[in-house]
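F.,

This is the one I mentioned.
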């Protein structure tokens, strides 16, 4: 079961909003809420509010457990730009683009079975390869000799 929440026309640039969105992509809902609550950025607060809204709709509309939900997909797209002008000298004007964002957050329910893979390696082969690399890398480098002696001259 998937639950979708949308936030349109957020008055923060998409480039900045994507930084906060990347923090929670693929994380559990509880972990994502903890991350966003300690995020200082302005988009982090907006995404936290959207995440709480999605969790509330999942509980109320679909009777899903909050502990089984995770952020399966979050996208930040560019919204309409507000075009403003900044007056300059000699009658000129430079454009200012005030960018907006559209955020789509999708929560999914975890399956009951989770797979964990453990990579097993032979300890002897690892140590042999490390010693070979160490022998190849170590070369004797002579240090330059310091022959010059500087005398301290007191200038009055």
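My design for it:
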């Amino acid at each position: 079961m998937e639950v979708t929440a949308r936030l349109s026309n957020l008055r923060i640039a998409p480039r900045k909003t994507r930084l906060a969105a990347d923090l929670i992509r693929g994380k559990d809902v509880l972990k994502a809420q903890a991350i966003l609550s300690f995020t200082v950025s302005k988009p982090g607060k907006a995404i936290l509010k959207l995440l709480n809204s999605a969790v509330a709709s999942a509980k109320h509309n679909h009777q899903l457990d909050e502990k089984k939900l995770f952020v399966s997909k979050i996208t930040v797209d560019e919204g309409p730009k507000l075009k403003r002008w900044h007056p300059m000298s000699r009658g000129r004007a430079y454009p200012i683009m005030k960018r907006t964002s559209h955020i789509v957050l999708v929560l999914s329910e975890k399956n009951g079975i989770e797979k964990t893979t453990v990579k097993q390696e032979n300890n002897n082969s690892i140590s042999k390869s490390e010693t070979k690399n160490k022998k190849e890398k170590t070369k004797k480098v002579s240090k330059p000799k310091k022959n010059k002696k500087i005398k301290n001259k007191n200038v009055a």
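The beta strands are 2-10, 69-78, 82-87, 93-98, 101-109.

Talk soon.
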